[in-house]
Amino acid sequence: MIVAADVKPAQDAPETPDTAEKTKTSSEYEDVVIEEEQLGIYRLLVATTKSTRRQYQKNLEEIQASIPHLVSLFKDIYGLSQSLFICVLLSRVWQGLEDALLMHLSTRMLRVIEVGLITGKPFAAEVLWAMVLRLLCTAIVAYLRWLGDRYQARLRSLVTAHFELTLMEVKLRLDVPTSLDASSKIDVSGSDAWNAFEDIMTYLTSVLTTLSQMVVILRQARISGDPFFVLVCLIKPIFANLTYRALWEKVCYAYVSNIDYLRMSSMQALVGGGFKEDVLTGDLGAWIIQEYRAARDKLGDISNESPFWQYYRSSTPFKPVVESILDDLPMAYCAVNAVLYPSRFSIASIAIFQSSSSSLRYSLDTLFRSGHEFQKNLHSIKEIYSTRNIRNKIMDGKVAYPSAEKANEGMSFELKDLTFSYPGSHKKGNALNKINLSIRGGSLVVIVGANGSGKSTIVRILSRLFDPTSGELMIDGSKAADYHIAGLRQATVLLSQENKIYPLSFAENIGLGHLDSVHDMELVKKAAEQGGATEFISKLDTGYSTQLNQSADTISMNLHGKNDHPLHKEMEKLEKAVNISGGETQRLVAARSFMRFNSGKIRLVVVDEPSSALDAEGELQLFNRLLEAREGKTMIFVTHRFGHLTKHADTIICMKDGDISEMGRHDELMRNEGGEYSKLYNIQAGAFAEQPPTA
Ligand SMILES: Nc1ncnc2c1ncn2[C@@H]1O[C@H](COP(=O)(O)OP(=O)(O)OP(=O)(O)O)[C@@H](O)[C@H]1O
Asked: Atom 30, ligand 1: which residue's CA is nearest?
């Protein structure tokens, strides 16, 4: 079924991405139509162009545009190791010729044997020589293949690591809004570069194999006086290629649209690890099974096979039947010819044609298959190289930060009519609305407000993780955009719930707060003390050198269920993870922030609710230690808990729905009885007030 570009999802299905909007807004896609198809439980949307000619033209344009990238790929790989590159290339050339060579030698041997049998005088020496030559060649082919595979494996490691590094550099360069932007998403990896190179080599090898085999077969056909044999061999691969139907190289999107299957998946998910406690305490077991059964009965035998396979597989038997018949065509052709022209054909000729035709058909199949992959690979290569051109959304300025005269002062801010909405956000209204605010350098600011009121957003803007959508942000009296971002980042500590522990040792997890002193254990231990992380680190066998969350890249075979097996015990030792609690994670992250103070460059400390998992004492200690290091720094705290901090704050900013509803010191705000701050404060104070015992 073909539908216009504004596809509507099936009624019982979840919303699909906004394909319609994309196809309408971009002139590049104006002739795109979307075909819809139901494949078992899947709804499949395939984008095609209205005219086949236009499609071919587009493909050609894409290939042309990819040629410079293809050249760069080969140049880059050649640059990584010239010797390995040449060896792999030579081994591929050899692979392209070996089939034809072996085919030629087999033919020669069969012909010598046949002449000996017909004349009744076997030419022992010739047969022996032909056999030795064939065996020698077989051994050389096997040896060169082995060698080629080894070279290829070595080149593969170099290529994957090289392109992974290139992509890592790009990803590290990208700022937050650019990384969140779908058009800048990097979906390729180092392995894709290698796969593309390997597939292209396979394609070129197949071209060589096919051509060289055709030369040998044509030669044989000339000897037998039958020039049409090659054409007979070509019919099946050409038919298969013309009727080839696969999704691999198409722009498509598939989603599970069957509500019964979705229901079954939800029930399965509830049984999974994450919901264990809820399911047990809620006694949901029997209900889950009952619901799963009901959905399964409704689903019946509707296929849940991957849409890729369902699409690939022919819906009628016509194609597979015709293909099988065409597969036997060379044999039928030989048989008919042997009957019609018995003098031209011999058993050896039939055997030779039979084996060479199946080799040729196989090579042609590979050639067409790798041809289909070719375009996909060109696309991956283009994507890898285009990542270099991704421009950051946040512009970098040229002015160094801080200026010499403000080097010992905290960062000051001025926000003028500042509005912000998150890129791609579907929410009505802005996350921040026309905010006007001044923050004096060195002051202690506390931001409070309800969930979603814009507290974290405001500190993200101040830390230059995002740029305002409109309005102005001034830092130390100059436009924020004029400063060199690296300088601003070096002067900022951002401690939030977003901070994670790294898959490194405890020492590095803390030390990385200040790159120049990563290995200075004295400073690391001091920071751990300040962050309140000393106690739990000291309880670990390997202390600060204990690795955290290291990605365990292990493979085990046939060990499942053999818990007493000595190898299982080894595996357990290697895979044993060190788990730390939520509160311990926050302590460790806080220690990293204290380590950052050692750089001596910090002018701004932003603390965004990093203490939700800390016990009351831990939180108080953390805030006190941060305040101890306050000199020469502006400190901004985002919190839901009133009390300790708000009472000491120079300014309390109370946020509501993206606006500043109130601003001032604690006493001033409390005097405004109907105000947002006093309301929130009183709710918390009331919650802790002593309740009279109920009768
Ligand atoms: N990454 C994001 N993408 C889109 N919208 C976002 C994103 N982060 C926050 N928002 C939206 O922006 C608004 C302000 O969010 P923000 O995180 O600043 O609130 P908050 O006051 O810090 O909330 P909380 O107290 O729950 O942490 C909310 O409506 C939120 O849904």
From this structure: 452
Match 């009885």 to its residue by tokens: 673
User: Over 70: is that where the pLDDT of 39 sits?
Assistant: yes
* Confidence at 8, pLDDT banded by 50, 70, 90: very low
Among residues 476, 296, 303, the alpha carbon closest in space to that of 397 is found at 476
Closest CA to 113 of 323, 352, 400: 352
Q: CB of 452 closer than 6 A to ligand 1?
A: yes
Mean pLDDT of the chain: 84
E strand or H helix at 141, and its extent?
helix 124-173
Q: What is the pLDDT of residues 357-405, one digit of tens each?
A: 788 878 888 888 777 777 778 888 888 898 888 888 888 888 998 877 7
| 22-31, 266-275, 478-487, 677-686 — most confident range | 478-487
What is the C-alpha to C-alpha distance for residues 375 and 62, in angstroms, rounded to an integer?
A: 8
Q: Is 647 in the pocket of ligand 1 (CB under 6 A)?
A: no
Between the CA of 459 and the centroid of ligand 1 the distance, in Å, is: 11
Cα–Cα distance measured from residue 265 to residue 489, given in angstroms and rounded to the nearest whole number:
44
446 C-beta closer than 6 A to ligand 1: no
CA of 431 to the centre of ligand 1 (A): 7
Q: Is 451 in the pocket of ligand 1 (CB under 6 A)?
A: yes
**Phi, psi angle pair for 479, to nearest 5°:** -60, 135
Q: Which amino acid is at 593?
A: S
Ligand 1 centre to CA of 97 (Å) is 63
pLDDT of residue 89: 93
CB contact set of 5 (below 8 Å; sequence gap of 6+): 19, 20, 23, 24, 32, 33, 34
Question: Residue 425 CA: which ligand 1 atom is closest?
Answer: 4
What does pTM read for this prediction? 0.74
pLDDT at residue 2 greater than cutoff 60: no
Beta carbons within 8 Å of 531's beta carbon, 6+ residues apart: 510, 587, 588, 589, 590, 591, 592, 593, 594, 622, 625
Q: Which helix (H) or strand (E) holds 270?
A: helix 259-271
